[in-house]
Amino acid sequence: MEPPSYGWETKPSARQLFRELLTRINVFADRKNWLALTNWVWTLALIPFLLLFFFKYFTWWMLPLGFLYSMVAMGTYGTIWLHRYGTHRAFVFSHPVWRFITRNLVIKIVPEEIYIVSHMVHHAKPEQPGDPYNAKAGGLYCFLADVTSQPIARDLSPEDYERVVKLVAHTGVVANSYEQYQRWGSIAHPLRTTLHFGLNWAFWYGAFYLIGGHLLAVTMFGSAHIWAIGIRTFNFAGHGGGKDKRRDGVDFNRRDLSINQYWPGFVAGEWHNNHHLYASSARAGFLWYQIDLAWYYIKFLSMIGAVSSYQDHRARFLKQHWEPYLARKRADLERSVDAVEHAES
C-alpha cells in the first residue's frame, strides 16, 4: 500500500484525513492520482440520478425497488465479486464468459484494484498499523480509505509489481506493463478502466430504460449511489467501531474484532466474523438462520456448470466451533442443575 503522509502508526485527525484526500485526488499535481480521483468521480456521478428521482420521477412504489437494488443486488454483488471471488478466490468460474457476466452483474462503481489488494492486507493486519481501513482509527478513516490508504504503492520494483498484478489477474483486469505502471501508478490503465465503466453504465441504463423507462433507470442509478456511500462505512461497523463487540455463540473468530451483523448478513451474505474465520469459503452463512444470498448465487452457478469448483467451510465451522460450543453449553447447564439439586438436598 502507498503509505499516507501521517504514516500507519498515527491515528490521524479529521484535518489530516481531508488534507490527504485532497492531495491524493489532485491529478494536476500527479497523474498517478487518477485512480483515487476516478473512484470518487463515479460515485459522485450518481448523485444527479438520485436528485432526478426525488425531484422529477419520485413515486412511492419505486422506493422499495430502489432499496432492494441498492441493499440486496449491489450488496450481494460486492460480496460475490469483490470479496469472495476477487480477494479470496473462494470459487472458480468454468469459463471467462461467466466471469464477465458476474463482473458486470450490476452498475459498476468500485475498481477491482482499489478493493482487492487492500483487502488482502486488511486480512493480514486487521486493526493493526498498516490495515488500510483500521476500525480503531475511526469512522472517517474507514470512510475515506479508498483514497487515503487503499491505493497500491507507486514505487514497486518490477518483481513486486508482478506479484501485485497476480492478485487481480484472475478477475479479468488487463494489467499495465511495468513501464505503464511507472507512468500511471496503478495496475489498471485509465483508458481501459473508463471504457469499462462507461460501457457498463450505458448497458445498464439502456436495459433499465427498455424495461421501465427513465423512471426505472433513474431509480436504479440513484439507489446505486446509496450503496456506494454505505459500503465505505461497512468495515468500521463490521469491526465493532474499533471496540470489542463480539458475542459468545455468535462470533467465534477471536483473532480480530470482526462481528456478525444481521443486516449485512441478511441482505448481502456478509457474516463478517464467519468470513474472517474462514476467509476462503464461498459460504459465510454457517448457521440455520444466517441467510447467504451470495452463496446461493455461487451454488446456483455451480449447479448449471458456470462454477467449476468452490470452497465451503461450513462443515469445518460446525465441527471446530459450533458443536464444541453446544457441548460447553450443555455441560454448563448440567453443572447448574447439579448445583441446584445439591443445594436443595
From TrEMBL:
Domain annotation Fatty acid desaturase: ranges: 59-298
Family note: Belongs to the fatty acid desaturase type 2 family.
Compartment list: Membrane
Native organism: Enhygromyxa salina
Signal peptide segment: none
Domain of life the protein comes from: Bacteria
PANTHER family: ACYL-COA DESATURASE
Protein name: Fatty acid desaturase
Presence of keyword Nucleotide-binding: no
UniProtKB keywords: Fatty acid metabolism, Iron, Lipid metabolism, Membrane, Oxidoreductase, Transmembrane, Transmembrane helix
Membrane topology: Multi-pass membrane protein
Classification lineage: Bacteria, Pseudomonadati, Myxococcota, Polyangia, Nannocystales
InterPro entries assigned to the protein according to its UniProt record, in alphabetical order: Acyl-CoA_DS, FA_desaturase_dom
One Pfam family hit: FA_desaturase
GO cellular component: membrane
